[in-house]
Each structure stands twice: as C-alpha cells, then as structure tokens.
Amino acid sequence: MKITVIGSGYVGLVTGTCLAEYGNDVVCLDVDANKIRILQEGGVPIFEPGLEEMIKRNVSAGRLRFTTDIKESVEHGTIQFIAVGTPPDEDGSADLKYVVAAARSIGRYMHGYKVIVDKSTVPVGTGDKVRAAISDELAQRGEQTSFAIVSNPEFLKEGAAIEDFMRPDRIVIGTDDDTAKDLMNSLYAPFVRNHDRILFMDVRSAEMTKYAANAMLATRISFMNELANLSEVMGADIELVRKGIGSDPRIGYHFLYPGVGYGGSCFPKDVQALQRTANEHGISLKVLDAVEKANQAQKSVLVDKIVKRFGNDLKGKHFALWGLAFKPNTDDMRDAPSRVIIEYLLSHGATVAAHDPVAIHEAQRVMPDWQGLSYADSPMAVLPDADALVIVTEWKAFRSPDFADVKTQLKNPLIFDGRNLYDPKKMEIAGFEYYPIGRQQVTR
Ligand code: NAD
Ligand code: UDX
User: Fold this and answer.
1) Between the N and C ends of the chain, which has fewer C-beta atoms within 10 Å?
2) Span(s) in the chain for CATH 1.10.1040.10
C-alpha cells in the first residue's frame, strides 16, 4: 500500500518504518528540514533501539524515503497518517495547530479518495476538526473528492517502540467509513496474529481510548508512589507489597513501579489535556486531579530526602547523578524528572555532575548553560568528590556497579536511589548510607 506519514518524530518515524518493514511503500514528511536532511543522509535524529537498522534496511529496499515536499508526499499515499506533535497549550489543553496544519496540507494537495488517519493523541472531537479543515481546503479549490477520517491512536512506549509497534496488544481503529475500515484491516493484518486484536469503533471512542489508557496508567503509578511513601514511614517494603498485589491477576504486575514521578512526552500532557476537556464540559475528574498533584509532589521525593540529610543550604555540596532521560532506552528529556531535581540542587547552591548513556546531548539542548551542571560519558567518571550519588533513571548499566569502586570514588558512601535498584540490606553490609523509595532507609 502507498502510505504517507506526516510528522517524522518518535511516532511518525517508527510508524513509517514499521509499515515499510511489511512491504508498504512509505514516504515520511516533516517540516523540520534538518531532521529530514539527517534521515536522507542515513542518520536517525532520535535514539530508539532497533530503529536505525530497520530504517537502513527499508531505505535500501526502496520502500522508505523522507521528504519536506508536502505536495509530493500528499500525492503519494492513499493512506495519510498524521503523526505531528500535540503539545500542551498554556492552559494544559492539547494544542491542535500542527494537526490542523497537517490536515490543511492534505486538503490543499489531494486528488482522489484518501484515508486520513490521525495517529497523534488528540481530544475527542478532533476528527471533526480535521474533516472540516480538509473540506474547507477542497472547497477553496473547487475540488470534489471524497475522503475518510480514521482515528488510530498509538500506544507505543519509547525505548520499546519497535517491539510495541510490531507486536501490539491491540490496534484501535475508529471510523464510520467501510472502505477505510477494509484498508486499515489489510494494512495491520501482518502485525496481529489474532484479528480480534484489531478493535473497530467510532472515531470519538477511539480518541477517548488513548487518553483513558494513559490516564489509567498514570493513576496506577501515582497511587503506587503514594503507597511507597506510606510504606516507608510504616516500615513496610513497597517492593514486597508490589509483588504481593501484582500477583492478583485483577491487578497485574505492569506499571506498579514506584519512583520519582512519571515524566515523558505523554503522561503529563495527556493527563492535563483530559482534565481540561472535562473542565470545558463542566466535569471535574477528581481522581485525575489527585493523580497530577501526587505526581508533582513525587518529583521532589529525592530532593526531600537530600534536604533531610544535608539541610536546605546545599552550598558547596557536589552531587553525582545517574540518568537524565525520563526513562531508560531513550534520549527523550521531555518532562524528565531529572530536570526538576537538577534545578533544585543547583538553585540551592550545589553542583551536579551527570551521566546518561544516551541523553547527554539532549540534556545539553534543554538545559543550556546551567551553571554548576557538568556531564561525563561514563557512570564512574561523575563520582569523584561527590557528596552523594543520586539515581534518577533505571538504565541497565546502573544495576550492578562495582560497589567497592563506587565507595572509593565518592566522597561519602551515600546513595539516593529514585528507582529502587539495589537491596537495602546488601547496601548496609557494603557500608553505604542508602535512601530508596518506599523501602528501608539505611541511615548513618
Ligand atoms: P515529535 O515532536 O517527536 O514529532 C512530531 C514531528 O511532527 C516533528 O518532527 C515536527 O517537526 C513534525 N511536524 C509538525 N508539524 C508538521 C506539519 N504540519 N507537517 C509535517 N510535519 C510536522 O512528537 P511525537 O513524540 O512523535 O508525538 C507525536 C504525537 O503522537 C503526539 O500527539 C503524541 O502525544 C503522540 N504519541 C507519542 C508517543 C511517544 O511515545 N512519543 C506515543 C504515543 C502517542
Ligand atoms: C507512555 C505509554 O506507556 C504509551 O502507551 C503511550 O503510547 C505513550 O506514553 P512512554 O511515555 O514512552 O509511554 O513511557 P512509559 O514506559 O509509559 O513511562 C512513562 C513514565 O512513567 C516514565 O517517566 C516512567 O519512569 C514512569 N513509570 C512507568 C513509573 O514511574 N513506574 C512504572 O511502573 C512505569
């Protein structure tokens, strides 16, 4: 099938590449000329495991190409995916200007029947706005072409995006157009062994499903974070509690890990956008309001422990920090909890030496010229002279360090662990002061 993907970011690039992998003829468009230049020269503008090889393979096979030429790309695909960003507006609602601009581009250049598939995360009712924008452009040209609107929200996780896209739990397709339904069914057939995994519904329900999923997952995480904070005070161990409740199939093991609060480009903005949608309709989502509040507080959980240990004046203190990206296996720094933690430490007089396996360049971009913040390209290189090590992201490379070496390098054998990477008992035996989340604190 001939496919166009508008927006070549995390979602667009993964979508286009995975569709090419199963033999489709894909053109990925972006307005960011620099991004397209990198892709045309064989590079990949983001870090996502497995993506680079898959892009190379499909480009060589002639099934995948990249362009900034809107007219050419709109003319190419029978199916036009919109995968542009939907960042938060000042009031937290989803800003649809990129989605509407993409829809207008399609309307401006399309000839003949097209299926317009919205893959961006958009509020309920956006399908109607996309339809109106395209119809308006067609009317201006006096063109009478029929088209279908489909909502096909994306559920991939960064860091596991290829795996998630190639082996989805489910594919949600919202449309009222039978031809579009058949085309989408054939397009996704290779991705699902069991066709029950393709869920057809109306556009509005599909749009709502995406927000419902992210809000539900964010709720689980915030609730676990609150249970962790309580466990810690009560002398219970949240890691044991997590296993104890996860073994109930009604609860399940996934997304029960306490930490430094959820971040990234999706949960924070999608929770807010859903709250805004509800408010606009006179409804208050009380549970979600609490989820967001709890998450804001959780981003300070490590800082609170640091202040408790060192006092509020951190002048002259130096911290080593492991993990900048909002989660492992990505270089994405959008809403990363590390930013809040670093900002606090620096603004209270401390200095920070940070390491992340892949996100340093992105950190430098989003935190330019932050006085007192330095980087090193290995975990051990940030340790010398540090008063403590602060762990923010659970990269595999941080899971089993040489603790004797860590102890020698640090000024104090002291670790604040926002991801519960180590066993408190073993840390005590190894001679560390150790402050995990929701577990036994090994104090002085
Ligand atoms: P992104 O910022 O990485 O990429 C968006 C791209 O769209 C950018 O490269 C931008 O230049 C391009 N763009 C903007 N306007 C354009 C236009 N008119 N024509 C062509 N290109 C245009 O964003 P992302 O992380 O890929 O997210 C895209 C959407 O998918 C968002 O709605 C997001 O909420 C949703 N989503 C993201 C994830 C994720 O893990 N990142 C997962 C599921 C859903
Ligand atoms: C999320 C959704 O999982 C995905 O389905 C959707 O398409 C996009 O948004 P992503 O943001 O890439 O994916 O990462 P995810 O693995 O969900 O993690 C989001 C945040 O929650 C991270 O900051 C992570 O550290 C945190 N998290 C996740 C926890 O704190 N505990 C957990 O148990 C899981």
Assistant:
1) C
2) 211-296
Measured in Å, residue 186 CA sits from the centre of ligand 2 at: 30
Please report the atom of ligand 2 found closest to the CA of residue 161: 12
**397: nearest Cα among 356, 354, 431:** 356
State which fold the 299-435 domain adopts: Rossmann fold (3.40.50)
Instruction: Please state which CATH class domain 2-201 belongs to.
Output: alpha beta
Sign of CA dihedral 52, 53, 55, 59: positive
426 known member of a binding site: no
**157 in a known ligand binding site:** yes
| Per-residue pLDDT reduced to its tens digit, 230-241 | 999 999 999 999
C-alpha of residue 163 to centroid of ligand 2, in Å: 15
Residues of the chain with CATH 3.40.50.720: 2-201, 299-435
- Please enumerate in sequence order all residues whose Cβ is within 8 A of that of 96, keeping only pairs 6 or more positions apart, or say none: 86, 122, 123, 126, 129
Task: Give CA–CA dist 301/304, Å, rounded.
Answer: 5
Q: What is the pLDDT of residues 378-405, one digit of tens each?
A: 999 999 999 999 999 999 999 999 999 9
CA distance 198 to 185: 8
pLDDT at residue 387, as a whole number: 98
For a substitution probing ligand 1, which of 30, 46, 48 has the most ligand atoms within 8 Å of its CB?
30
The per-residue pLDDT for range 156-182, each reduced to its tens digit, is 999 999 999 999 999 999 999 999 999
- For the chain, give the longest Cα–Cα distance: 78
- For the domain covering 211-296, report its CATH number: 1.10.1040.10
ipTM: 0.98
Q: Ligand 1, from 121, 122, 265, 267: best to mutate by most atoms within 8 Å of Cβ?
A: 265
**Ligand 1 centroid to 27 CA: how many Å?**
16
